């Protein structure tokens, strides 16, 4: 699903096929509850109906512009001038609609500058919205490519126009999928033009090293699925990564039974063009020996890339961790001072209290956290901790049990808690904490961005101390809108919810 802000009118230049949208319109109208004056109750934009187009900022409509539209682009644009948000949809294509914005074969089109005002959100779709501008003989796209939202698009294709987009600095690649019959589509472009390399093979031999090993910039996600690849070292020149992800998996390693190592070259950061989104990774069903070195794990968590699943263990060899102090946990007593990284389940028990200052610098805990039967009153010694990664699902990632004096369980600087899959915490028999908490739900970790919390710091709490976990109450729901973009989905029935809860606004796409 894609959502579109500021959809304006030049789109009437696109030839369209008439469809039947009464049902879709009804669906939109059934859903609105805000302002009946801003509903455009027609499925067709023409000289009769345009007079009734509401002059509202937010309009509820399905706007169909097609061969029966007896209006010029300028006339439509004038009628839509006050609208900046559309709840509903726009039909703008001449072929199947579900896949994005297509501007094709318009012999008279010379100005597509409206494209830089259009913003397509892919919602929770794993891929970006497709934008194709093709075969418009008089259209110069060259300057537009770096403007507005177009510059951020990770799936923009321009061919056959007077001038097309060029990417002089980088090779641009899109690895679409490496699927059952491992298929790599490398869509590369350079100053000369665009070439399409498509190789089909079963396994790693697919990769035409002479191309993939040169790739510096990847726009879009990396999805390596159902292959015999052993690792990702073939992307040896990889340096820059741009994605658009509200909350989608941008690094997916799935069902690769021979994959034992990660070995992706390091990129410094991931440029995410979604306004307030997060990026996710998923490592699932790889070789049973698949392991990440401590340095790779640090690289991944520092990229702020939470995991949906992380079917991995830690390699014996920690890799290059620079100046960081790595401590393997056996007991609090034996733990050295000044650990930056603790590897192993961190267990703090009776009589360990005084040793807790050894944890004052711990930034990464690569194991679960168990605090049991202590006299601790708070967890201040753990305040440096930013990431907890626990790779064994057979016990909870956090256990706070029978700490009779423990009143404050906060760990205020945690950014992510990563597990193999299950996300569980047990909080039990900490009487002071329980008394302090009353009937409220546990909120042990920061959750500034609650809409994405389920993969960051959100846990399922059990044990007697945490009141029933409650999330949204008092919610006020209204529908957002979407535009002509979707990905193999029935897009007319997909919506976003804006939920306004205690002055915090959540946006949920489904
Ligand atoms: C839209 O038009 C249909 C058919 O003319 C009518 O039944 C429906 O009540 C109208 N809805 C609104 C919100 O005006
Ligand atoms: C405009 O569309 C409406 C509704 O589809 C239709 O009833 C009307 O005849 C059309 N007018 C013109 C001028 O095509
Ligand atoms: C449109 O979609 C249908 C069903 O998904 C498909 O069979 C058809 O080939 C598509 N047509 C075009 C022009 O892409
Ligand atoms: C544009 O039209 C030509 C001629 O009909 C056709 O061959 C070409 O595929 C069209 N391009 C697109 C992008 O639809
Ligand atoms: C790899 O790419 C080079 C350069 O384009 C080409 O000459 C060669 O045939 C390709 N190899 C395979 C196996 O496709
Ligand atoms: C990575 O994969 C390549 C094959 O693509 C293999 O030759 C190499 O040994 C692998 N490296 C490791 C450390 O497994
Ligand atoms: C997980 O922990 C259980 C219980 O301590 C242990 O038996 C099991 O081997 C561990 N699994 C892994 C993958 O380390
Ligand atoms: C907490 O919940 C219990 C049982 O639901 C109820 O009896 C009690 O009054 C509640 N306490 C507060 C402070 O709301
Ligand atoms: C959310 O609700 C509050 C109170 O009901 C209101 O003041 C605020 O403007 C709303 N925010 C949005 C974005 O609708």
Automatic annotation (TrEMBL):
Coiled coil residues, start to end: none
Tell me which domain of life the UniProt entry assigns to the organism this sequence originates from: Eukaryota
Q: Which residues form the signal peptide?
A: 1-19
Concerning InterPro entries, the annotation shows: Rcpt_L-dom, Rcpt_L-dom_sf, SPS2_domain
Instruction: Give start and end of each Receptor L-domain domain.
Output: 210-296, 338-431
Keyword Signal in annotation: yes
The answer to keyword Transcription regulation applying to this record is no
Q: Which UniProt keywords are listed?
A: Signal
PANTHER family from the UniProt entry: INSULIN_EGF-RECEPTOR L DOMAIN PROTEIN-RELATED, RECEPTOR PROTEIN-TYROSINE KINASE
Q: What is this protein called?
A: Receptor L-domain domain-containing protein
Q: What is the organism of origin for this protein?
A: Caenorhabditis latens
């Amino acid at each position: 699903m894609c959502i579109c802000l500021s959809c304006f009118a030049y789109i009437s230049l696109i030839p369209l096929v008439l469809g039947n949208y009464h049902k879709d319109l009804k669906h939109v109208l059934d859903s609105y509850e805000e302002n009946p004056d801003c509903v455009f109750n027609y499925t067709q934009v023409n000289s009769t109906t345009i007079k009734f187009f509401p002059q509202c900022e937010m309009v509820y409509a399905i706007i169909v512009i097609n061969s029966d539209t007896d209006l010029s682009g300028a006339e439509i644009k004038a009628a839509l001038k006050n609208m900046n948000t559309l709840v509903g949809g726009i039909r703008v294509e001449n072929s199947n609609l579900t896949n994005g914005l297509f501007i094709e074969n318009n012999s008279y089109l010379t100005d597509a500058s409206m494209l830089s005002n259009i913003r397509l959100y892919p919602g929770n779709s794993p891929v970006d919205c497709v934008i194709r501008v093709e075969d418009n003989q008089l259209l110069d796209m060259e300057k537009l490519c770096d403007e507005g939202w177009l510059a951020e698009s990770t799936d923009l294709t321009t061919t056959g126009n007077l001038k097309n987009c060029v990417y002089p600095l980088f090779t641009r690649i899109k690895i679409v999928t490496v699927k059952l019959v491992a298929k790599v589509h490398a869509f590369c472009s350079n100053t000369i033009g665009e070439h399409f390399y498509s190789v089909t093979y079963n396994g790693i031999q697919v990769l035409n090293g002479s191309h993939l090993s040169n790739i510096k910039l990847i726009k879009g996600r990396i999805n390596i699925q159902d292959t015999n690849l052993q690792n990702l070292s073939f992307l040896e020149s990889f340096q820059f990564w741009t994605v658009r992800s509200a909350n989608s998996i941008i690094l997916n390693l799935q069902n690769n039974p021979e994959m034992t190592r990660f070995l992706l070259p390091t990129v410094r950061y991931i440029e995410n063009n979604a306004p307030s989104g997060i990026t996710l990774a998923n490592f699932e069903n790889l070789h049973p020996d698949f392991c990440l070195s401590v340095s790779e794990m640090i690289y991944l968590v520092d990229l702020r890339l939470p995991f949906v699943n992380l079917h991995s263990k830690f390699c014996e060899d920690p890799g290059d961790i620079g100046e960081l102090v790595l401590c393997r946990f056996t007991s609090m007593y034996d733990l050295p001072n000044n650990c930056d990284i603790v590897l192993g389940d961190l267990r703090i028990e009776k009589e360990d209290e005084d040793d807790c200052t050894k944890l004052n610098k711990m930034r990464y805990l690569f194991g679960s956290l168990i605090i049991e039967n202590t006299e601790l009153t708070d967890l201040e010694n753990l305040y440096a901790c930013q990431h907890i990664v626990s790779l064994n699902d057979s016990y909870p990632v956090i256990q706070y049990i029978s700490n009779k004096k423990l009143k404050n369980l906060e760990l205020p600087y945690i950014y992510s808690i990563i597990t193999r899959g299950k996300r569980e915490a047990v909080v039990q028999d900490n009487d002071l904490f329980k008394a302090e908490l009353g009937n409220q739900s546990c909120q042990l970790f920061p959750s500034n961005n609650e809409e994405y919390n389920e993969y960051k710091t959100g846990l399922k709490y059990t044990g007697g101390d945490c009141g029933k976990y409650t999330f949204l109450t008092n919610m006020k729901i209204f529908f957002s809108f979407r535009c002509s973009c979707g990905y193999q989905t029935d897009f007319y029935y997909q919506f976003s919810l804006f939920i306004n809860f205690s002055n915090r606004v959540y946006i949920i796409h489904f």
